[in-house]
Amino acid sequence: PDPGTLASVLTEGVKNTIGDSRVKVTYEPEYVPAVPPAMPDIPPEQLAGMIKATVKVEVLDGNIAYLKIQHIIGEEMAQKVGPLLLEYIWDKVLPTSAMILDFRSAVSGELSGIPYIVSYYTDSEPLIHIDSVYDRPSDITTELWSMPTLLGKRYGTSKPLMILTSKNTLGVAEDVAYCLKNLKRATIVGENTAGGTVKIDKIKVGDTDFYVSVPVAKSINPITGKSWEIDGVAPHVEVPAEDALET
C-alpha cells in the first residue's frame, strides 16, 4: 500500500542482485527533471556570487592555501567568470607554499571541470591524458587531456598538494582526486570516497511515479586502467573526515 516502502524494497533487491549501490528505485510523484539555466541569462557578477557561496578560501598558518570546494564548475562557466575567479580565489592562493583542497563536502560538478582543475597542478607541456569517459547512450568515449593554456598562472608541480576526502565526496570530485592521486601529484587525507559516477540518469518507469536512477557513463583512468566508481578513492592517510584538516 505504501509506494515509498515498495521503492526501498526494490532498491534493496536491485543492490543485492547486481551489487551496485548507485542504482536506486524511488517514488517521486512531484519529480520535475532539472533543466540547467541558460548561461547567458545570468550576469557574471551573479555567477561569481554563486561560486563564492560554494568555495571557501583561506591562507592558513605556515603559508598554506586552503580551498574548500562543494561544486566543481565546468569550463563554460569558468570562462565566463574567469577574471572574477582569479581575483577572488586564485590570486590569493598562488603565492602560498602548499595547498589543501577540501573535497569533503563536494557532491556535484561538471565533467569539463576535471581537466581544468587538474591542469593547474601539472605542467603545460607535455600534455597528459587524464581520463577517458565512456558514455553508454551515445556509445562515445571522450578523452580528457590536460590543458596547454589556462586562465591565470599554474600552481605548478613542485609545491605540496593535499586533498581532503570524506565518505560523502561524490562524482566529479572523486574523479579529480583519483586523477591527481595516480599522477602522484596529491596526497589524499581522510575517508574512502562514496564511489559514485560521472553521470546518472533518472528513468521513469512506465506511466508511474517510480523512477530508476542508473549510471550511464563510466570513467576509466589511463594510468590504472580502472575506475574509482563503486569502490571510491582510497586515501593515502586514512582518518575520520572531521580530523582530516588537522591531520
TrEMBL record:
<dbReference type="Pfam" id="PF03572">
    <property type="entry name" value="Peptidase_S41"/>
</dbReference>
<dbReference type="GO" id="GO:0006508">
    <property type="term" value="P:proteolysis"/>
</dbReference>
<dbReference type="GO" id="GO:0008236">
    <property type="term" value="F:serine-type peptidase activity"/>
</dbReference>
<protein>
    <submittedName>
        <fullName>Interphotoreceptor retinoid-binding protein</fullName>
    </submittedName>
</protein>
<dbReference type="InterPro" id="IPR005151">
    <property type="entry name" value="Tail-specific_protease"/>
</dbReference>
<dbReference type="GO" id="GO:0019841">
    <property type="term" value="F:retinol binding"/>
</dbReference>
<feature type="domain" description="Tail specific protease">
    <location>
        <begin position="43"/>
        <end position="240"/>
    </location>
</feature>
<dbReference type="InterPro" id="IPR029045">
    <property type="entry name" value="ClpP/crotonase-like_dom_sf"/>
</dbReference>
<keyword id="KW-0675">Receptor</keyword>
